[in-house]
TrEMBL record:
<dbReference type="Pfam" id="PF00028">
    <property type="entry name" value="Cadherin"/>
</dbReference>
<feature type="domain" description="Cadherin">
    <location>
        <begin position="58"/>
        <end position="126"/>
    </location>
</feature>
<keyword id="KW-0677">Repeat</keyword>
<dbReference type="GO" id="GO:0005886">
    <property type="term" value="C:plasma membrane"/>
</dbReference>
<dbReference type="InterPro" id="IPR015919">
    <property type="entry name" value="Cadherin-like_sf"/>
</dbReference>
<keyword id="KW-0325">Glycoprotein</keyword>
<dbReference type="InterPro" id="IPR020894">
    <property type="entry name" value="Cadherin_CS"/>
</dbReference>
<keyword id="KW-0732">Signal</keyword>
<keyword id="KW-0812">Transmembrane</keyword>
<feature type="domain" description="Cadherin">
    <location>
        <begin position="353"/>
        <end position="453"/>
    </location>
</feature>
<dbReference type="InterPro" id="IPR039808">
    <property type="entry name" value="Cadherin"/>
</dbReference>
<keyword id="KW-0472">Membrane</keyword>
<feature type="domain" description="Cadherin">
    <location>
        <begin position="127"/>
        <end position="235"/>
    </location>
</feature>
<feature type="signal peptide">
    <location>
        <begin position="1"/>
        <end position="22"/>
    </location>
</feature>
<keyword id="KW-1003">Cell membrane</keyword>
<dbReference type="GO" id="GO:0005509">
    <property type="term" value="F:calcium ion binding"/>
</dbReference>
<keyword id="KW-0130">Cell adhesion</keyword>
Amino acid sequence: MILQAHLHSLCLLMLYLATGYGQEGKFSGPLKPMTFSIYEGQEPSQIIFQFKANPPAVTFELTGETDNIFVIEREGLLYYNRALDRETRSTHNLQVAALDANGIIVEGPVPITIEVKDINDNRPTFLQSKYEGSVRQNSRPGNSIGTLTAHDRDEENTANSFLNYRIVEQTPKLPMDGLFLIQTYAGMLQLAKQSLKKQDTPQYNLTIEVSDKDFKTLCFVQINVIDINDQIPIFEKSDYGNLTLAEDTNIGSTILTIQATDADEPFTGSSKILYHIIKGDSEGRLGVDTDPHTNTGYVIIKKPLDFETAAVSNIVFKAENPEPLVFGVKYNASSFAKFTLIVTDVNEAPQFSQHVFQAKVSEDVAIGTKVGNVTAKDPEGLDISYSLRGDTRGWLKIDHVTGEIFSVAPLDREAGSPYRVQVVATEVGGSSLSSVSEFHLILMDVNDNPPRLAKDYTGLFFCHPLSAPGSLIFEATDDDQHLFRGPHFTFSLGSGSLQNDWEVSKINGTHARLSTRHTDFEERAYVVLIRINDGGRPPLEGIVSLPGIILAVVFIRIKKDKGKDNVESAQASEVKPLRS
């Protein structure tokens, strides 16, 4: 082992003596910051420099971006054991320190920079091996087809990465070779000598070479010649004659077939035909669908025909391509055709001006008030008679001639709003055809319902003798329409004679508490009247009757008489104790 280590050091020393180099042309020197330039790809085990140690330093330590390539011997010999690659790392930042016999740093560390110099060791490459482009026929020479881009990993802006492009081969060579060129340095592919025609050759294949000073790489380009739109659609005939249809012909019906042809390349935007109606159909009643395979046009009905507004229509079609025509080519009379549409009359039912008519009135309008009206028209101009259907409450009547609608009975929002009926319009004479529309009457609320108890408070009692004042909570409501905040009732005793024994206190807008003022009650029935006011316009009141029996049943009954006390007795169906 000693002999082997000695031979290794001897080998490094010989390499150092033969090839050693360093900053300022020196091969060895003291420990200080230094920079070395080394070409990539050189043989390994090359000596870079020998650092000299000053006592008490006896050895050296190497750290930093060594990548397991750079090594320093105990004697201070710095070398690399593998070939360097600039494309992997162009600069290695190292640190060297001098250590004493105990491994303690006594000098440094100092920065050592290794700059890896480029050699041409990378072949230029294209982004892909095959490209595809296109050129329109009749395009002028010089038109760009596209740009090819290759890359070289060697150092930029040097001779190692300077690239040249050229066309190696063109196939087929029809009508001649050299139809294309590529810019030597930019890689732009262009049309060179003349315009191309698809009927001569629809496709060309080029072999492109990119090279640096030492390497070459090939790629392949397919160029498709695209047809241009230099032919116009031509109708097979310019006049499709007369066509007679009844005005009730179904929507969606195909009524005519038209045909034009185009000599451009099939199944392209240059040969596809679109048919447009340019005259005679301002209402858009007709449309034309095109078969994409045959360019046949099918004329269909999109909206109902109408004898009364368009008995005869002179329809004109235009056939055109979605692709613009080339400069100098224009559509002419061959791309136009016509036909005459004759619509015959059919007796039709009256037509309402709206599907749904709507009106809004207050629910307390006087009987005989006009609440709305409807209108309909007969296409043939016949008179119309109006009638109602579905007036289940008998609230409305309609004027048979004018369509005005009147109230004939008191209206009630709480019974139903909106109130919906059907209106029938029937032609007078002819076939007596009729049609139906809806009439919706929205009733606006008025304050016409007095307050009442929200539920039946029966079977309640206090226990005698009362040990403490007792109370009960009750809830009020009414049937009128309220805002989102709900009703705001006020509560009071219905008679001044009750105030010594009872009191009413409001809890919120719908709830109140009835309480005893003392405990000195006899064991008998008591009648308590509660007045509830809704504060509406006009204000309405309800009288709540609370008859009770101490140690027995307390009865609750509400009276709806406006402003009048009316108390009825009731029989208890169940018994529930009140709080006391």
